[in-house]
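Data deposition worksheet. Section B asks for the primary sequence of the deposited chain exactly as it was used as input, without tags or linkers unless they were present during the calculation. Section C holds the resulting structure in C-alpha cell form. Section D is free text for depositor observations; keep each observation to a single sentence. Incomplete worksheets are returned to the depositor.
Section A, Depositor: J.P.
Section B:
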Amino acid sequence: VTAPPRAPVTTVSAIQCRRASASDAGASTRGASMSKSKRVDCVMRVTGAMMPSARRVATFATRRVAAAADADDAPKPQRRVRKISENPRAVAAERAARDGAKKATAAAAPTDDSNADDDEDDDDAAEEGTRLDLKDMYGDETDGSWDEEEEEETEAETEEDEDVKTIDVLSNFDFNLLSGDPPGHKSGYVAIVGRPNAGKSTLLNQLVGTKLSIVTFKPQTTRHRILGIVSEETYQMVLLDTPGVMKEEFNKLDEMMLKSVRNAMANADVLLAIVDATRDPYGAFEGLLPEQRTNPAPLGVIVNKCDLLEVDEIREVKEYFERIPGVQKVFPVSALAGVGHDAVQKWALANLPEGPTLYPKDTISEHPERFFIAEIIREKIFLQYQQEVPYSTQVWVQSHKERDGVKKDLIIAKIFCERKSQMGILIGSGGKALKELSTAARLDIETFLGRPVFLDLGVKVREGWRSEEAALEDLGLDDPNKLEQPALGPAPDIT
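Section C:
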C-alpha cells in the first residue's frame, strides 16, 4: 500500500496565533494560562490549511498541561517576604477602641458563638501585630516562611527611626550665636600725629601692648599709616600711627606720606598731637595741624619724653598748651619708660562715640604678616647703616612659604636702593654686611612669627624710586596691605 502524499507544512508565527485567537471564544482562557506558566511556543506545524479554532484550542490546552507538569517537578525558589507590622502604639489604641465597641455592642444585644469566635480571632491578630496574608498576595505556592535577615533589618530600621525622633537639635549650646555688642558699646579711630622722631610709634606700641611699629633713634622711620587695635567687651579703639609731618617735601615719597597723615586726621574721632618736650615743643606744635580744622574731633596734646625734664619745666610746658584754643587735655608722658599712657587711653576712650565693633575682637592690626616682615628688615637697615642709605632703601617681601613640620619657613625678600654705590654698602666686603643684616632680621622675624624661618635677602637697584610714582606703587608704599607681586623686574642681582 502506498502511503498518501503528505500535505505541505505551514509555519504559523506567534503573532499570527495571537491574531487568530482573538476571534475565538477560548482566547481569554488561553491568555490567562499563558501568563501564569511558561510561554508555549506558538510555532506549530499543521497539515493542509490552518486548523479550525476548536482543534487549535485543544492543542494548546494539551501543551499547557504538559508545561504545568514540568513546572511542578522543578524546585521552587523561596520568596523573600518582609514582615510588616504596625506601630505598637497604634495597635494598642485600636485594640482599646475595639474593646470599647465590643462592650457597647454586648450591652446592647447578645452575640452568637460564631461572632464570638470572630472577635477572638481579631484579638489574637491585634496582640501579634497586623500581618499581611502571604497567600492572598502570592497565591498558594507560598510556603509562609519568614526571612530572618529581613526581619532583623526591619527591626534595626525601626530602632534607627526611634533614635532620630529623640534628637534635640542644638540642645547643648548655651550661648547666642548672633550675639551683638552690649548697650553703650564705643568704637572709633584715634589718630596720633606729630613731627618726625617725636615718639608716635613708641606710644602706639605702649597703648596696644605689643610691638607693631618699628622704632629707631632716627627720624622719619615710619612710612605708612600703621593701624593698632585695642578691644574690650565694651569698646574698640583703633589707633593710627602716622608718618612724621615734615615742614618741607622733597620727593614723591614725602608727598605720599603727608597725604596719609591728612587722611588720618580727617577721619579720626579723637586726635592726639604729640610733641618732643626736649626739642622746642612750641615750635613743633606750630603748623602741625591745619589752621582751619574741618574735623571737630576732640584734641589732646601729649608732651613726650618728660622724664628728661625737671618738674618745673614740665609744669610750664603743660600750662602753655592748656591755653591754646581747641586743646581739651594735656598729658605729660614718657612713652619709652611706659609712664602716663594709661591716662591718655582713658581720655581717648571717654571721647569715643558709641558704635559697633569695627574689627574682630581678637585682632590687633589689619596688616598682613608680609608687611611686618618687611618693616622688621627695614628697621635693621636703619639701625645698621648710616647717612642716606636707610632713607634710600625699601623692602619688598617676594614670597613667604610656610613649610609645615619639615623645614623652616622660607622668606624671600628684596632690598631696593637708588644707586649702585649703595648696593656695595649694603652688601659689604665679601657679603659680610648683608649676612649681618640677615641674621639680625631673622631673629626678630622668628620672635614675631613664633616659628623658625630661613631668610633669603637680595639687593637690587631701582634708580630714583622715591621720586617715581609708579615705583612707589610697585613697592607697596601706596597700600601697605598689598600682597600681589608687583612689576619689579628680574631676580635680585646678588643674593
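Section D:
The mean pLDDT is 75.
The longest helix spans residues 53-73.
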